[in-house]
Amino acid sequence: MLSQYRNRFDSNILSVFKQALQISLRNSRRFTFFSTAGLAQARAAKLRKRHLITGLQVPPLLIISITKRCNLNCTGCYSKILHQDNQSELSPERFREILNEASTLGVSIILLAGGEPLVRRDILEVAAEFPRIIFPIFSNGTLLDDSYLSFFYKHQHLIPVISLEGRELETDARRGDGIYQNYLQLVPKLKQHKLFWGSSFTLTRENYNQVLSHEFLSAQLALGAELYFFVEYVPIASGTESLVLSSWQKENVTRRVDRLNKDLPGIFIAFPGDEEQYGGCLAAGRGFLHVNPFGLAEACPFAPVSDVNLSFSTLRESLSSRLMEMIRQNHSLLKEGEGGCALWANREFLQELSREDREA
To answer: How far is it, in rounded angstroms, from Cα 349 to Cα 62?
Structure first.
């Protein structure tokens, strides 16, 4: 059954690269890139299947929060709430070793987040050394200067994804005055450098109808973004539970995103999306794993418990750790309910698993 879910997940990932090929037909450089990238994704999927036969679950993707630092102070930012330690962040040298191992194991997509990842140019330059891995980089866009634009043009596997909340009113209300205008001023430069880039929206009860509408996204496509992530809001900040998607909205996210992919010339991805098709929560290595700015391997960005630190241990050890295995064994009990994340909704249960792990 596990291999069936994994095959479906791998197949859905490959379909994204087929979409990228379709929307790149008029751009020979980009078409060549996505052709090569698609083949690399297929090879990585075969490698992961071989590991699965031996009992090692290697996820297709990692989420690595490479820094807690940020030049903005967005309302309800989960990173500022969860990453308050003063530990040292991963060094470029250790990051390179992690990427080497990830590539060897068959990890083929690594989402880079923060904080603001563009403050870690040293880390991004290491990521540039691994062209077989795709790195969507989730940024607020304010530090995306000419030097970075040239850098991303040279390294097509590093894909800037600019975080917005909707139109100007919604974006500035959460991220600060002038952030949306900065985005609009950035758009001509992105086009001038002929980048493949995207946008990310935190999906809330309030902006749901706007950011998932054909009208809004057609206007965004006209600006040039061709990749879109819709990340369901998780109420890490106390008192923000009213922003969580309603049950009806949650049930219809996948249907609406599927329709967008059929109707519009872009790539639209909901996260976490419909995890039921994969047998439930994809965290803890079933589909992805999170590494926090200090190297701690966590089941997901909203599950700040860990029993392995990648500053000292291997990625293989983190995937096979007792805590991750306990979470995977109990994933059928991790029902999402309200809140956009099954592990956050069941955080007391997760803390209990962590306690049992420490006492074992």
So the answer is: 23
